[in-house]
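Subject: Probable membrane transporter protein structure
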Amino acid sequence: MAYLVLVIIGVCSAVIGALVGIGGGIIIVPSLVYFGIDHHLLSGMTPQRAIGTSSVILITTGLTATLGYLKTKQVDVKNGLIFLIGIIPGALVGAYLSKYFTLDSFNLYFGIFLILISIILMIRNQVKPIKYFQQEKYLKSFIDKTGEKHQYGIPPIAAVISAFIVGITTGLFGIGGGALMTPLMIIVFKFPPHVAVGTSMMMIFFSSLSSSVSHVIQGNVLWVHAIVLIISSYFGAKIGVKINSRMKSDTVVLILRITMLILGIYLIIKSIL
């Protein structure tokens, strides 16, 4: 029964994660806590081990999705590497800080975090572009599959600082950083949603490598669970990439927003009850 639960978690999280550029950690971590701690179906589970195991899984999801998005030219490698300068050290800091979480505090803070991002996505079209981020020397163009032209750019210093903050949430919550990085790229840096998703998956791969090192050292990875999740996540990520390539940008953002809102409300209710 435990293995079946892990396969379902792995496939579903990878499909949704690759589809909207969040890696799937926001599904894996609460699911491992729910089935492992609340219902005792997964032995040896703690909040820290759910986070650590999730970080390892996201390496597979991130790599598989990135390779798929590279084929469809949805990855901005140059700007993605700039973000990584900040996100990798941030992930190491966050992974260290995660040891101070209790189950209730984890559910509460993670839930608030997800709802906040969902709300930001709701008002993204009302947020006026910040002139500093739209400097002509940083701008580049992208034409999506509908023929619409997008212009976006990232000043390096702002990118590194914002990515460092995102990196802390990566290690802290074991979510790969995509839950914050994708909305950040869409809202602040005006990335086309499809490019934001593809680029986010590349960063999730590298940031998960970084945070996983710290979690492995701390003994926060349940390797038997991880192997089952890795195999199922591999196939789930491939499915998510294929679905994404057929969807409109607004639909991608809508799914991202709804996913975060539902999970956020659920986790806050759990922390209170």
